[in-house]
Amino acid sequence: MTPSSARGRSLGPVFALLLVLGVGTLWAFCGRAPESPAPPEKAPATPPAGEVPALESAAATRSAAEEPAAARVVPDGEDPATPTAELVVRVRDRAARPLAGVGVRIEREGGEDVGGGVTDAAGELRVHGLRRGSHGVYTPMGDTSVRIAEPRLYEAAIDAAEIRSIRGRVVSDAAVGVAAAIVLLGADDSGHGMQPAATTDAAGRFEVRIAKSGCVLGARVEGRVDGPLEPAQDDVELHLGEPDSSCRIRTVGVGGEPVACIVLVGRPDPIRLLNPARQAMERWPAGREFETGPAGDVEVRGLHGYTRELHVAPRSADYAAWAGIWQGGPSQTIQLERSCSIVGTVYDRAGEPVATARVAIGSRRSWRRQQTLTDENGRFTLRGGPLGEQQVTASRKGAGRADAMLACSAGGRLTATLVLGGEHSVRLTDDAAQPRRTVPVRLSWRTHSSLACTDANGEVSVPDSWWRELQVEVLTDSGEWAATTVIASSDRQITLRQAER
Predict the structure, then answer these.
(1) What pLDDT score does 266 carry?
(2) Which residue has the higher pLDDT, 289 or 72?
(3) pLDDT per residue as tens digits for the range 395-446
(4) Non-local CB neighbours of 25 within 8 Å, separated by 6+ positions
(5) How far is the C-alpha of 379 from the C-alpha of 476, rounded, in Å?
(6) What is the domain partition of the chain in residue ranges?
(7) Is 427 helix (H, G, I), strand (E, B) or coil?
(8) Do 13-46+341-498 and 164-239 share a fold?
(9) d(C-alpha 402, C-alpha 396), whole Å
(10) HSE of 61 in the Cβ direction (CA atoms, 13 Å)?
(11) C-alpha distances in angstroms, 191 versus 215, 237, 348, 489?
């Protein structure tokens, strides 16, 4: 297919060899045959001392039996082979004295939570496994940011301004003070990274210290979900959450083998719900994370009503992420499907492969989304994401962004061609003008070739420089490449149909 000339012409001798090499590969990419070597592509140029005023911490006053062990782990990141950096966060008061027990939340650019914890007696917290990019550091004492550029040790210093005390009370539904309740403190109103900051006295009273506005508070007691969030201000009343239930979660593979996973009980983000007893909308916190470990099982708490949701992120990319609901019983086995592999190449508008572009499945706020970086040839592989229709996004600073909706199936293999900042695409339809999804296509321009599968809209992105001399072929069920004919065209998209023989 050539937009300016005959679009259904057959391949010349130059592409005969590509035909033989490419059929098996693309067939495998779309889940139809075992994997075989990919056809050759253009080789790109290399692209470019004193007293420690410790904050009162509930963590030091409760036993392991009182609180189930929730996993607070750093995500695996883009590519396990990519070296990672370490960040040391130091929190000091105005007299340069270390502040212990300060909750810290680390958020990567785009809103992805990548770690956190509480400062130690030296006022420090170490976070490992950070990838390249800008990271925000949020604490009740102040915020800062740091840009990770290489795998080394980084430091982030937060000097608290005037520290003030916030006093409040945790109460029951009968407005009676609740003793020994855990008070959770968040550095901002996102509701993420809530950390224990105090324990209530016999009358339910507590005191926490902050040095900035915008912080939020919540209450936690054994046997209940975490209570609704309230702004951190004097005389605040924190209400208890609903009575919760526990469940023994077991995560297994298709053959019944245990699979180490992280389990999120509840929703990834805070939500607002109406409390009928108080006739008011309340903001409930995000769910809690638990880790099954190698044995593939863990007892989780916090299940009740609106927190029936369960999300599972396998530690191994061999298995797909899972989302569902708690069935209401004391135990539940979750069987994980084999993951879908997504391989492809990221180009710029001129058709040059883009190295170190970030490719991810899902939106920026997705919980523990899978992401990776392209290699020096612009190629990438993603595994372990959710199944079904998924958005795959590629981006690189200064080069733009591209995305595609792909239908991911268990054990499948898909290809994607993503063009950063590109404005051109081709769309494949059937005789009824409906989009043909997950169809293997080959894009050819001069001596270059790229393999892809059409997305949920039947579309494939095309580098702008390929547009005028582009040839598009479709892989048929018989394993042969078929030419295409143009049905409609515009300045930015051409609609195609497989040519009749």
Answers:
(1) 87
(2) 289
(3) 887 788 888 888 899 999 998 889 888 778 888 998 888 888 888 888 888 7
(4) 35, 36, 37, 38, 39, 451
(5) 25
(6) 13-46+341-498, 58-159, 164-239, 246-335
(7) strand
(8) yes
(9) 10
(10) 17
(11) 9, 17, 38, 48
* Torsion angles phi and psi, residue 162, rounded to 5: -65, 120
Q: According to the model, what pLDDT value does residue 364 have?
A: 65
Q: pLDDT tens digit string along 206-259?
A: 999 999 988 999 999 988 888 899 999 999 999 988 888 899 999 999 999 999
Nearest to 7 by CA among 479, 474, 478, 351: 474
Dihedral over Cα of 54, 56, 59, 61: its sign: positive
For the chain, the C-alpha Rg in angstroms (whole number) is 27
Coarse DSSP helix, strand, coil percentages of the chain, rounded to the nearest 5 percent: 5, 45, 50
Do the Cβ atoms of 354 and 396 come closer than 8 Å? yes
Query: How many Cα atoms within 13 Å fall on the side-chain side of residue 232?
Result: 27
The predicted model gives 262-278 an average pLDDT of: 81
CATH 2.60.40.1120 given to domain 164-239: yes
CA distance 497 to 500: 9
Instruction: Give me the residue label for tokens 């926490």.
Output: 208
How confident is residue 192, by pLDDT bands cut at 50, 70 and 90?
A: confident
What whole-number distance in Å separates Cα of residue 459 and Cα of residue 79?
Answer: 28
Task: With beta carbons less than 8 A apart as the criterion, state whether 384 and 311 touch.
Answer: no
Nearest to 41 by CA among 396, 445, 349: 445
Amino acid at 272: R
pLDDT band at 110 (very low <50, low <70, confident <90, very high): low
Q: Using the predicted structure, report yes or no on whether residue 312 has a pLDDT greater than 90.
A: yes
Position 285 pLDDT exceeds 90: no
Pick the CATH number of 13-46+341-498 from 3.40.50.150, 1.10.10.10, 3.40.50.360, 2.60.40.1120: 2.60.40.1120
Structure confidence at residue 487 as a pLDDT band (50, 70, 90): confident
Give the H or E element holding residue 477: none
pTM recorded for the entire structure? 0.65
Residue 65 makes CB contacts below 8 A (sequence gap 6+) with none
> What local confidence, expressed as pLDDT, does residue 64 receive?
31
Residue 16 pLDDT grade (very low, low, confident, very high; cuts 50, 70, 90): very low
CATH number for domain 58-159, candidates 3.30.565.10, 3.40.718.10, 2.60.40.10, 2.40.50.1070? 2.60.40.10
Q: Between vectors from CA 235 to CA 58 and to CA 286, what angle results, nearest 5°?
A: 50
Model pLDDT, residue 46: 35
